[in-house]
Amino acid sequence: MCRAVFAWHMQSVCAAVCKGRGWMGMKRDERAASRGRRPLIVQYVVLMTCIATVLVATYTAWSYSEQARQMEQQMLSEARVLEKSVRATWDFIDYEQPNINYDSDGTYDFKGLYCSLVGKSVGKLFSMSTDYQYTLRYTRIDPRNALDEPDMFEQAAFESFYNEGSDEYYDFVDDEQGGRNFRYVGAIYLTQSCMDCHGGPKGELDVTGFEKEGLRIGDIGGAVSITAPAELYQAGIDLNTGRTAVFFVLFLSVAFGASVLFFRRNVTAPIARIEDATVEVGRGNLEVDLKGMGHSRELNDLATGVEAMARELDVLYTTLEEKVDSRTKLYREANALLEEQRERIARANQMLAETNEKLKEENEYRTNIVAILSHELRTPLTAILAFVDLWEISGEKHSEESRDCIEKVKAHSLTLLEMVNNALDMVRVESGALEIARETIDLVDLVCAVTALADPIARGKGITVTSEVPGDVPLIKGDWVQIEKILGNLMSNAVKFTGEGGHVRLLTTFDARSATVSFAVEDDGIGIEHDSLEGIFDRFVQADASISRKYRGSGLGLSLVKKTVEVLGGTVSVESELGVGSTFTVTLPVETVEEDELDEDTDRR
Question: What is the rounded CA–CA span in Å between residue 569 and residue 587?
Fold first, then answer.
């Protein structure tokens, strides 16, 4: 049964890999057609054909462009040589003018043979000798002879000479008959010998009977225009390009055909054998023979791997059922263990919930007891302080001993009242019953109120209390009462732990970028050891037990400050050095009061 199931599974896998090839009696070509994809050899042929086409087209275009460039350079060189030959004739006639126009007795007799005439005649004879396939002529702007009038190409050349300062102008142009010609125009600059006919004064007749133009040495007196047919060169380029393309096509076709045969024999045929072997494995026939796969190391390794896979599958058939039973047993045991663990976790969660409920009830009970006790303590303490105040203002004379006892009673009562108030506030904060107000606060007034509360006790100890609120601190929205309690606790601690002659300072700053207000309470009192700073804000914690005995206190003040600051969304930190002093910094996020909001608040009031 296990062997049959595994054979069915392998058939499914092979069918998925072959993508619907249908190995039940189909031929290889039918499988290739059924899967809707081109065979590997076809893809190879298409790819190589595209590559060969791109290579031949690219090389043909590059070869054609390079030969065209060489043709242009060759025709330009020939035109320059021809132009220099004409100029040489021109210069020769100009140089021989004295010998031509002076007789042997020294009498000047102008023979009518001058440089431009000879140049034109040479050009005409040259053009006639080539049946006007090549033309050589002289041209200029405002010519003396209408036959020398420049055509459009020659006019463009003169514009280039005058505007760009070039000496020559050339390009390929098409004539009216559709032929392609190479045109070259070279500038002729006037020399000293040219001034007799073309210099000044302007309008005076020269020896040839024409009016002088008033030109100067270095001016452009005309140009040599040469036209040469490009058909012969172009035919050579076309022939060479065609031969090159045919050679490459033949070469690539032979190489491509040979590579296709090699690919079919050494790649696709062995792959087809391996494919047939995997189909047989999918059927359950594990006796496959893939020896003699050819000379490809990669395909031989692949065939060896398929044979090894078949052998391993054969071994797996014999042990699979045993492994399945073993694994099933392990799964059942694991499930049983998992179920048992689930029950334990459920019981533990139930016990945890019951414990949490008890702790919640106990915490609520403790909180209620603290609140009741604190409330019940405040009433007699308030009465005691009231009687002490009445005793002090009664006007009666009392002994020094009585007055000392009453002062101690008042001091201890105030300390106890502070502890009770801190305990009540702590209960409110921890129970979540603390309500946060949002009102407009002038921090100058708030700081003055805090320092006013701390100042009497400080003066009694000989301590100087100062405060500072810079002018850039704006009005804010916040809870006056809670901020006053926070600062009052910090100022009370600072005064308490500062000796006679010390200083306590409350500095207020505003950071517009983070929209926060910072209150720094600085003192030069006893300070705190570095090791004691870590738990300084915990409940019932003071830096030293001796401090608690000497200065009295419940250890709730700083913890209450921290929790209240956190409820307001702020932070509190401390920096201190033993024997130097401490700085407690409270930073609160605030919302500033705009001027229009202040006007609205004023109107409502």
Answer: 9
Question: Is pTM beyond 0.70 here?
Answer: no
Distance set, CA 196 to CA 44, 206, 540 (Å): 80, 7, 124
The answer to whether 273 and 290 have CB atoms below 8 angstroms apart is yes
For 556, half-sphere exposure in the C-beta direction (CA atoms, 13 angstrom radius) is 17
- What was the pLDDT predicted at 371? 63
Sorted by sequence, the CB contacts under 8 Å of residue 43 that are 6+ apart come out as none
pLDDT of residue 544: 52
Alpha helical stretches, state H, 432-523: 443-460, 480-496
Q: How many CB atoms neighbour CB 55 within 10 A?
A: 12
| 247 contacts: CB under 8 Å, gap ≥ 6 | none
> Chain-wide mean pLDDT for the chain?
78
Give the span between the Cα atoms of 505 and 521, in whole angstroms.
6
**Contacts made by residues 424-431, CB under 8 angstroms, sequence distance 24+:** 424/371, 424/374, 424/375, 424/378, 425/485, 425/560, 425/564, 426/539, 426/556, 426/559, 426/560, 426/563, 427/367, 427/370, 427/371, 427/374, 429/560, 429/563, 429/564, 429/567, 430/367, 430/563, 431/367
pLDDT in tens, 165-179: 888 999 988 887 878
Above 80 in pLDDT, residue 37?
A: no
Q: How many whole angstroms separate alpha carbon 513 and alpha carbon 472?
A: 13
| Site of tokens 């308030």 | 382
pLDDT bucket at 34, cuts 50 / 70 / 90: very low
Given this model, what pLDDT does residue 400 score?
Answer: 75
pLDDT reading at 280 higher than 50: yes
H/E stretch holding 402: helix 400-431
Q: What separation in angstroms does the CA of 9 have from each of 281, 434, 443?
A: 11, 69, 81
- Is 113 in a helix, a strand, or coil? coil
Q: Please tell me what DSSP assigns to residue 63.
A: H
> Letter for the amino acid at 356?
N
Give the long-range contacts of residues 526-530, CB within 8 A, separation 24 or more. 526/497, 526/498, 526/499, 526/578, 526/579, 527/576, 527/577, 527/578, 527/579, 527/580, 527/581, 527/582, 528/574, 528/576, 528/578, 528/582, 529/578, 530/576, 530/578
Helix 2-18 to helix 269-283 angle (10° resolution) is 150
Higher-confidence position of 371 and 245: 245
% of the chain at pLDDT higher than 90:
13
Cα dihedral 494, 495, 501, 504 sign: positive
Domains by residue range for the chain, with CATH? 2-64+239-283 (no CATH), 96-229 (no CATH), 436-604 (3.30.565.10)
The dihedral sign for the CA sequence 230, 233, 236, 241: negative
Q: Are 581 and 527 in contact (CB under 8 A)?
A: yes
Task: Report the alpha-carbon distance of residue 542 to residue 528 in Å, rounded.
Answer: 10
For 456-475, the pLDDT digits (tens) are 888 888 999 999 999 899 99
Calculate ∠ Cα 284-287-290, nearest 5°. 120
- Residues 237, 68: Cα–Cα separation, whole Å: 7
